[in-house]
Design brief:
Blueprint (H helix, E strand, L loop, with lengths): L26 H4 L5 H15 L3 E4 L4 H14 L5 H5 L13 E4 L5 E6 L4 E4 L6 E5 L6 H12 L3 E5 L4 H6 L8
Parallel strand pairs: 3-6
Antiparallel strand pairs: 1-2, 2-3, 4-5
Length: 176
C-alpha cells in the first residue's frame, strides 16, 4: 500500500513582518484589550518622535463613509450596493495600509496596523486564555505590501510599537 501523499502547506511566507506571534509581546500588553485605533495612534507617535518621520494615517473614517454610501444606495433602490463599493477605500485602492510615512532620508514606510490578541484569565483555572484573536492582514493588504516592498519601501504589519523595530531597525531618537 502506498503512503498517503502530504498536502503542501498553503501558508505563504513574506519578506516582512506579517504574522502575529504572541511570544513577542508581554502578557500584560495582551491583557490590556488594545484596539487597532490605539495601535495606529501609538505607531504614528513613535514614527514621528523616534524615527523623525513624516507620518499620517490612511483611510480614516472611510469605513463609516462606505457604510453611509451603502445605506444611501439601498434607499435609492440599488440592489447589492456593497458590491459596487467592494475593494475600495477612501483613497480608491484596495489593500492600502493604515499608515504611510517618509523617513528623513526619503525612504517610504507603509505599515498595516492590527489589534493584538486579547488574553483573559480563565474563570476555572486562572490561566491565561485567548479572549479574541489578533487582527490579521487580508490577501489584498498582503499583496499591496508585497508590491511596495518589491519597489523598495519598508513595509510590515504591526500590533505594537515594538514591531517597528523589526520593520525599521532601532529608532535614531530615544522613545520615552
Amino acid at each position: 500500500m502506498s503512503p498517503v501523499p502530504r498536502l503542501k502547506s498553503r501558508v505563504t511566507e513574506y519578506p516582512f513582518l506579517w504574522r502575529f506571534d504572541p511570544d513577542r509581546y508581554a502578557t500584560a500588553y495582551l491583557c490590556s484589550r488594545i484596539h487597532e485605533a490605539q495601535v495606529v495612534a501609538w505607531l504614528l507617535d513613535a514614527l514621528r518622535r523616534g524615527w523623525g518621520a513624516k507620518a499620517w494615517p490612511v483611510d480614516v473614517g472611510a469605513k463609516t463613509l462606505r457604510g453611509r454610501a451603502v445605506g444611501a444606495l439601498r434607499r435609492r433602490g440599488v440592489a447589492r450596493p456593497e458590491q459596487l463599493l467592494h475593494g475600495t477605500t477612501g483613497a480608491g485602492m484596495a489593500g492600502l495600509p493604515d499608515i504611510q510615512a517618509i523617513l528623513p532620508g526619503g525612504q517610504a514606510v507603509l505599515v498595516e496596523a492590527k489589534a493584538p490578541a486579547w488574553l483573559k484569565a480563565s474563570g476555572k483555572t486562572g490561566r491565561m486564555i485567548l479572549d479574541r484573536a489578533a487582527g490579521a492582514p487580508d490577501p489584498t493588504q498582503l499583496a499591496f505590501l508585497t508590491d511596495a516592498h518589491a519597489h523598495g519601501a519598508l513595509v510590515g504589519c504591526a500590533w505594537a510599537v515594538t514591531d517597528l523595530f523589526e520593520i525599521l531597525g532601532p529608532p535614531p531618537r530615544r522613545l520615552a
